Amino acid sequence: xxxxxxxxxxxxxxxxxxxxxxxxxxxxxxxxxxxxxxxxxxxxxxxxxxxxxxxxxxxxxxxxxxxxxxxxxxxxxxxxxxxxxxxxxxxxxxxxxxxxxxxxxxxxxxxxxxxxxxxxxxxxxxxxxxxxxxxxxxxxxxxxxxxxxxxxxxxxxxxxxxxxxxxxxxxxxxxxxxxxxxxxxxxxxxxxxxxxxxxxxxxxxxxxxxxxxxxxxxxxxxxxxxxxxxxxxxxxxxxxxxxxxxxxxxxxxxxxxxxxxxxxxxxxxxxxxxxxxxxxxxxxxxxxxxxxxxxxxxxxxxxxxxxxxxxxxxxxxxxxxxxxxxxxxxxxxxxxxxxxxxxxxxxxxxxxxxxxxxxxxxxxxxxxxxxxxxxxxxxxxxxxxxxxxxxxxxxxxxxxxxxxxxxxxxxxxxxxxxxxxxxxxxxxxxxxxxxxxxxxxxxxxxxxxxxxxxxxxxxxxxxxxxxxxxxxxxxxxxxxxxxxxxxxxxxxxxxxxxxxxxxxxxxxxxxxxxxxxxxxxxxxxxxxxxxxxxxxxxxxxxxx
Length: 544
What we know:
By secondary structure, this protein is mainly α. It has helices at residues 2-14, 16-26, 38-52, 74-87, 91-117, 119-131, 133-139, 145-165, 169-180, 188-204, 211-239, 243-253, 260-276, 288-307, 312-332, 344-361, 365-390, 405-413, 453-459, 470-476, 482-485, 489-502; strands at residues 422-424, 437-439, 464-468, 503-510, 528-534.
């Protein structure tokens, strides 16, 4: 009994940082950042899968927007569904999956850094990652990037085990994990390239193995990935016989099918927007400190390739992994801002290599402690600064009150019951009962389906319209923000006529955050949300 208690105490002491990270973050999991429409989009599909009892289903809030079932995200939904079943479909329940994945990612990162750089450097880098605002943000974001990061770090640890033991089973396990992650998100392609970069270094400069061994490892890795890809493609064809055509159409809509030269010209803009915190609707924390640290780490790694041969294998692999990751980002051309988190561990490992090398050159313990304290202090301050801005304590949002998601839904509840059928923004999905919400994105396809605005409202039995001020802003500044809801121009006037003639205004409320989805404007003033009740059909609708 005493031994069991001692073992338990030892386990908690060894993993104290991970427990602290999880517990601290769970307290503001629902509050930071604001709920982005991607989150209810994904969890709404998970809820629909639960209702249908099948993965062969689509989002109920998109009845005109073309959506088709496929297998590329089925594993993500399979992981999300138990949490929804346990805690209901809420921002907390769906974000909990990302926080659990982030805690696992921290543990895996510590294992990798401890094996490659030693215990002290591992502790410093793990604490730095735990304090990183981009990492915290994505641990609170109910998308797939944090799960992909966990898979990447798990695959990286398997790769290191393969070097340590010489056993090929670790490469097979590494490839199998990445192949399974195709069922999480198509960006599994990016993490496959990172490990592929490591293996290409082994093939080009055999470090501790023959070229034949390196070629065998690379062949096994690519074969398992190819089999995994074929499996998910086959499953997708089973779910949708027109999978390639339909998924290709979706890819074209997000820029994946653009010519490579256009993607190349947009590539620097991807980093520039991240550096300056420019975004469409995604929350983008200030990560200029990370850009500085990562630039120093990369420059230091290049110098060490020439002047510190002992660390050359470490730096060659990491640089190759980063090159492949950036090449993959360019080839895909989607330039999704949340995907930047996949780069962070690689840069931190380069930074750790630089710190370790400098530590061997400068023996003063005081110097090492000072450098560690400065880096950790700067990271902590940067995160506190970003959190203060997002909670409207400082910066451009300080002139409005912080609006939580609960505040938003309580305001909605003053006018509309959860079981009502409503036309509204997708970010309201956690308030309304399943199947009761129709999203504004459908309206861009009215003409394609031969429907009028009034006809759509009546045929769906929509009882209320929750109308955010951003709709008027988007129309007035068209076509800049057409990416949010499609082109408003064909139906905007008909919508206004319908609101005037066939609804009554019940009231309005201030919504600084959720009344405006455009990131640079959200929270900057008290945007208004108007609530309309649809009147009974009189038979002489305005656009019939």
